[in-house]
Please model this.
Amino acid sequence: MKALLRLNYYMIGGYKIVLAFAAILFFFLLLPISRRLDASFTVILSLNFGAAIGFTPVGIEKAESMSRWRSYVKTLPYTREQLVDAKYLFSLISAAAAALLGTVMLPLLMLRNPEAISALTYAPSAAEFSLMNAALAAAIVLYAAAIHYPSYFRRTGGIVLFAVGFSGLIFGFGFIFFPKYMMALNRCELEPLTPFMRCLPYLLFAVSAVCCLLSWLYTRKTYCRRKRRRAA
Model:
């Protein structure tokens, strides 16, 4: 399992991808943006970093295709269950990395602008805001895993599953959650966030985690059953 995790890590870029995310983080935090939108800006970064990390494994497919990894792995002492588990476990680790980025963005921003939160009179505390950002970033990574891996392990009909899941991501995050959440944050100059808006990032994280769990169970069942059928 450790070897499979290291394989996924190096196939997405290894240390280079880590340095790239760190460089992009500091670059965006140095951009000249208005004080009033600084807190909201970290939400945008959290969503973007979560999407970038979540859909990075999609690029692995090209590398695996060029190296004929799927044919080579059949000669190795790995079961189909282990191959599925390694992919999903790697996404859990990626979600933890995205959550870490989401957590540190606001403290780094406040080093440059200590009034990033206080400019919004009724905004949550910096600690709560950081946790909300972490939940959002991790939620996108887990949801990306939930919609990507069933299509990755299914040779037929997988693109349909991915298209439906990706459409749900765009519609749910892009047209429902994001506009309403940003409007609620901007209104923090006049009124505090409602209890529902405070809990929404954690709710999205919980839903994404459940989707990822169900996706893992579904992929394990369908991908491993195919082997037993062929053996029979």
